[in-house]
Amino acid sequence: MGRAIFEGYADHASLWLLGETGKVVRFDRTDGTRTIVAESVLDLMPDGTRLWVLRSGAGGEGEIRDLRSEQSEPVRFYVGETPMIRLFATGQDSPGVLTSTIAYRPAERDWVRKELAATLTAGEVASDGLTALYVGLNRGEFGGDLRRVDLDTGTISIVSAQGDGLCGGALNPAYQPVIGLFPVPDRPGCVIVGTGLSHLGSSMGRIYRVCRDGICSEFNTPTPTLPDRWLLMPSPWPLDDLVPIRDGWVATSRGRFFRSRDGRVEERAFKPLHDWSGLRISHEQDGVLFVVGSCCWGGAGQAHSIPCPTHPSLGLTIPSERALL
Prior knowledge:
This protein is mainly β. The chain has one helix at about 320-325; strands spanning about 5-10, 15-20, 25-30, 35-40, 40-45, 50-55, 60-65, 75-80, 85-90, 95-100, 100-105, 110-115, 125, 130-135, 145-150, 155-160, 180-185, 190-200, 200-210, 215-220, 240-245, 250-255, 255-260, 265-270, 275, 280, 290-295, 300-305, 315-320. It has a four-stranded antiparallel β-sheet with strand order 1-2-3-4, with no helix packed on it.
């Protein structure tokens, strides 16, 4: 998989991971057996009972396939030299595809193409369940932003709210990189957005609900009560990753994660990681797996959350299927 794991998903029998090499590897959760199930993969997206992959092919062709159905035929389409960014859910039998200049939505016989008013760069993508996409960018210490793409008109707007000072306001592009983004299941037109930053001894972690009529704060991480060796001054815990689960979300930080269930957030410590089939991985906890996804500055491994998610120090959070259904 290379030097980093980018995305992952798990059910009771399998764990799928997308690595730096563009290969998706399926791990049998009973014995750890590895199988390469797709190559040249740009994105991996769970969608109900399906697990879609977006692949780049020869001659400017893109391909979408369901990894959980050996009988399903791949869906192919032509994008030319336009970079593909991500898949997005459509509520239909096939996902949509966002490229840097065009949004593709499935139709009965072909694709509906909508040219965008500006060029997008790669980032997190989520549909609001109506006629908009949200694209979240993470530029690390240089900030990031959240953009709304109108699928009817192709117009793109930056979503933020003004505040006091250089770093004030909700979803401030100068200060709040987007670390996670997903639709609100019971609220069409709304998405949950996570932001997090740790730089020069200061840090923050914030989660918002964004709807067409405004931005609401869902959660701000607390400030550590004991000294933390990474912080030069008391600052709120940074957030590294955010994934949805059936009744809320899980967001990871240093040595801990925050678990939202039915609107209440609890802070919990990571259980010890162990070696398994070439991975540093946790046992399933609160509907997710934590997998060390890369090496980071300072020598610690970063974990991802996986539904069951994949991210802890540069890592992956992976939700398990039963946590999403």
